[in-house]
């Protein structure tokens, strides 16, 4: 019996379901930390244009280069050589497991609403609880929990229903006066003030869209290939509208200062202001179920990345080991071992959730940027366009917008987060050289690659010095 193909509406639902994650529940507080309502609107406009361009890049590369089946790192490898291919895979993996630490913080902050011993999500009790949950998830995956269909159904309901209820309640409770008060954070619009506010929103908005490349994964299951692009754009626009409503409606319920000082998850406490404690409890329960499901899914995904890349001889071959249940045991152990190690850092940073999602967002910037650059390279060299020039100009414009957006994101993220991620990128050089030796690759590194390695190490040393001296705070 042939597999049933998906039409446009089911494809849109898949895109929306895969995009809305835990970040939505803390969006109002995260945005308010550095920006007023006017700057948040500008931030969403920039993000909307940039993230749609990135989604179109992933779709186009899937269509133009169907033979590159190794994930987004294969585009970097094909376009810019083996070292940047490895770097892209490494950064993507870093982002995946760093995001799991953010999940751990947020879920125990939510549990803390019911059990004060976990209050804040980053104390000793929360770290112990998160560690137990981490190794329980590890055990489930090692035992061969591969099918997440049922779990995904439950977690999708758990996140969509509370978010929809919040938006409906917030629409009725919205106060235009509260929203317009201190709209720009100044008496009048001034880019010197508003520009910094807009920059502060960038890592937040990227975090809630991480996984946008997954929108094209279902292309093989589509009735019509053309529906994939439509579903990507319509799904993205729907999610963008939901995120905009969450962040802006909240500014009409509470002042920016109140929102910025809310505990995690901010949505629960805004809901409590609107309808009382039952609303906060409802949001927190939905988040706990949603994040535990996402934690399981992303643990499988984070462990799958080194496993697949090891099979492609991009990572060391010992990461390709499976157990009798077909679970990637070595990759899973390395991934969750690092998560466990980094859970300890929750004790040393004031806002652990924000720090971890910012690191996860910074880590994925390089893989996303390299994909945008590869799209631009294909159009400029006209590779794959000789026999099929249709859409060349559109693809060129999309590649240019995505490239500008990704470069802007690196700038907006700030030097501190860039150099902190280099502390994680730099050790990857050792793994890269190890893998080359293991596979008897005798081709010497290019001067460009060696230069990049030096830059990574220098920035990592600078980050280490900054942490020790106190010039960089976590």
Mind explaining what this structure looks like?
With 474 residues, the protein is mostly helical. The protein is 72% helix and 0% strand. The chain has helices spanning 8-19, 27-32, 37-64, 72-80, 82-114, 124-142, 149-173, 176-180, 191-207, 225-251, 256-260, 266-275, 277-311, 329-343, 352-381, 392-413, 415-425, 428-438, 447-469. The chain is globular and about 65 Å long.
What tags apply to this protein structure?
19 helices, mainly alpha, globular, single chain, 474 residues, 72% helix
> What is the chain-wise order of helices and strands?
HHHHHHHHHHHHHHHHHHH
Strand elements, count: 0
**Rough outline:** globular
Cα Rg: 22 Å
Helix content: over 70%
Low-confidence stretches: none
| First and last CA, distance | 55 Å
Number of helices: 19
Q: What's the mean pLDDT score? A: 87
Q: Which strand-content bin applies to the residues?
A: under 5%
Major sheet: none
Structural class: mainly alpha
Summarize the structure.
The chain has 474 residues and is an all-alpha fold.
Write the layout of secondary structure elements.
Blueprint: H1 8-19, H2 27-32, H3 37-64, H4 72-80, H5 82-114, H6 124-142, H7 149-173, H8 176-180, H9 191-207, H10 225-251, H11 256-260, H12 266-275, H13 277-311, H14 329-343, H15 352-381, H16 392-413, H17 415-425, H18 428-438, H19 447-469
Helix pairs in contact: 1-10, 3-9, 3-10, 3-15, 3-16, 4-5, 4-15, 5-6, 5-13, 5-14, 5-15, 6-14, 7-10, 7-12, 7-13, 9-15, 9-16, 12-13, 13-14, 15-16, 15-17, 17-19
């Amino acid at each position: 019996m042939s597999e049933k193909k998906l039409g446009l509406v089911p494809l849109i639902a898949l895109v929306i379901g895969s995009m809305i994650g835990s970040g939505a529940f803390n969006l109002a507080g995260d945005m308010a930390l550095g920006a007023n309502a006017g700057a948040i609107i500008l931030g969403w406009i920039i993000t909307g244009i940039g993230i749609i361009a990135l989604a179109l890049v992933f779709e186009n590369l899937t269509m133009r280069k169907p033979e590159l089946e190794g994930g987004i790192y294969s585009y970097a490898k094909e376009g810019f050589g083996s070292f940047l291919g490895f770097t892209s895979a490494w950064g993507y993996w870093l982002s995946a497991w760093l995001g799991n630490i953010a999940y751990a913080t947020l879920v125990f902050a939510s549990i803390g609403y019911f059990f004060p011993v976990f209050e804040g999500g980053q104390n000793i009790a929360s770290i112990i609880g998160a560690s137990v949950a981490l190794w329980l998830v590890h055990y489930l995956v090692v035992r061969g929990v591969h099918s997440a269909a049922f779990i995904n159904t439950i977690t999708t309901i758990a996140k969509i229903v509370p978010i929809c209820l919040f938006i409906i309640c917030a629409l009725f409770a919205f106060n235009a006066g509260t929203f317009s008060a201190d709209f720009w954070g100044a008496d009048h619009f001034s880019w010197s003030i508003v520009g910094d506010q807009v920059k502060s929103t960038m890592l937040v908005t990227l975090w809630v869209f991480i996984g946008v490349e997954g929108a094209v994964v279902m292309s093989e299951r589509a009735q019509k290939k053309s529906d994939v692009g439509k579903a990507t754009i319509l799904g993205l626009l729907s999610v963008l509208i939901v995120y905009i409503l969450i962040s802006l409606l909240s500014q009409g319920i509470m002042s920016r200062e109140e929102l910025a000082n809310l505990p995690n998850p901010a949505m629960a406490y805004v809901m409590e202001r609107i309808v009382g404690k039952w609303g906060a409890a409802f949001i927190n329960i939905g988040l706990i179920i949603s994040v535990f499901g996402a934690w399981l899914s992303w643990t499988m995904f984070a462990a799958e990345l080194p496993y697949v890349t090891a099979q492609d001889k991009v990572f060391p071959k010992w990461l390709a080991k499976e157990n009798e249940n077909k679970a990637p045991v070595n990759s899973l152990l390395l991934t969750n071992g690092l998560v466990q190690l980094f859970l300890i850092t929750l004790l040393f940073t004031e806002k652990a959730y924000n720090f971890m999602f910012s690191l996860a967002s910074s880590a994925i910037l390089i893989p996303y940027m390299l994909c945008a650059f590869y799209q631009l390279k294909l159009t400029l060299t006209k590779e794959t366009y000789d026999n099929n020039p249709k859409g060349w100009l559109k693809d060129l414009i999309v590649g240019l917008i995505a490239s500008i957006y990704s470069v802007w994101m690196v700038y907006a993220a700030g030097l501190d987060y860039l150099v902190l991620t280099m502390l994680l990128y730099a050790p990857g050089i050792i793994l890269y050289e190890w893998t080359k030796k293991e596979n008897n690759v005798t081709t010497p590194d290019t001067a460009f690659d060696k230069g990049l390695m030096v830059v990574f190490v220098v920035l990592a040393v600078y980050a280490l010095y900054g942490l020790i001296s106190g010039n960089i705070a976590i």
